[in-house]
Amino acid sequence: MKKLISDATERFFNVDNTFLITFKHLFTKPDEVIGGYINGVRRKYLNPISYLTIAITFGGLFVYVCTEFFPNALDFDFRYENSSSLTEAENLGQDFQKTWNTYLFKYQSLFYIAMLPFLALMSRIVFINKKQFNLSEHFVINIYAYSHLSIIINTVYMLVLWNSKLLYYVSMVNLVFQIGFFTWVFYKLFNLTIKQTILKLLLFLVLFATICFVIMLIAIVYIALFTDTFQKMAA
Hints:
Layout: H1 2-13, H2 18-28, H3 30-38, H4 48-69, H5 88-106, H6 108-126, H7 135-160, H8 164-190, H9 194-226, H10 229-234
């Protein structure tokens, strides 16, 4: 057992291993990590599938810790008024919001994985005038960027799960962090100017908001038709 623990520690926490190098350089020089992989560099950094696997593991760990040790952390009760002073419709709205928060946090990894093809397509559309990367290579870019964010975000979430209010505010900052990191990745990969970066970002946000709205509608329809969530809230 001691040998197994030693081997695991050596593999994942040694300063010379590819995971830590990949993690560090995706912050400082994402163009070298992602561009290098696309151009055939395989040994220096983790490949995107391995990095995604680690990200999914962190997401699963977050769900486990939340479910087992902090089951009420995602209710965010501090945001809601005392139910005794609310109408039935307002209580129903609060219950739905709590349920939505739980689904969104617990299944965020699945949501983003499902979004990866759309993100790749959107980034390809945004950079349609740049022929540097094709659609499959945009898929690689988004896998690396998403995986990196997921590892960071789920780690931070686990550190603040003990405080529901802190978790909520961290989740708000998370959105800005995600947008900023994706912007940084594409800025480096395509060697953009500040003006080009802002214009591309605005176009991407419009496309992303449209896709998210459609997915949200689909999710609500699914919850309404295939689960008993609304019946429970009405009862």
